[in-house]
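My convention is simple: the sequence line spells out the residues, with the fold written below as integer tokens. I include a record here:
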Amino acid sequence: MIAMRPLHLFVLLGAAACVPAARAQTYLGTASGANEAPSNASPGIGSVVLVLDGTQLGIHATFSSLTGTTTAAHIHCCTPPGTNVGIATQTPSFATFPIGVSAGEHVQVLDLEQASSFNASFITNNGGTVENARAALLAGLDAGLAYYNIHTNMFPGGEIRANLVGQDVFSDGFEGN
């Protein structure tokens, strides 16, 4: 079982690792079964930090105590918390998300100028271009209408979900690699 670190640490580390010394848009979420729609009694927990730098979206998520083993994870957009909507990002799962585990960590950077960062139907449903899909995803994130979802063999529709909320973070001179 992995130790859950404070969410504040992820914000600082995410900002330092993903952006040069500049203003970054950060989105935070705490994952639980209670956030699923419909909610479930999973003991699973997790933290998600997204850091947007231009068209690069850094993802850092941790999760543990799932009742099942992971089958997929992605970002859904654009709908209010407590409702379901289609997948916006890579399908069937993020390319680097660990499959077949009940605890783990997901670190990835999506280039939001690339079609491969999105679900093809999300692009189609948002005007047919990557630019429109990127604009829709960013507008959804800014409006609190996106969520990071982890699916398992016990909960194929989603075991834990983190509703993503944006906030500005200043990296205060940290330099990315």
Summary: Helices lie at 7-18, 120-125, 130-142. The first helix runs from residue 7 to 18.
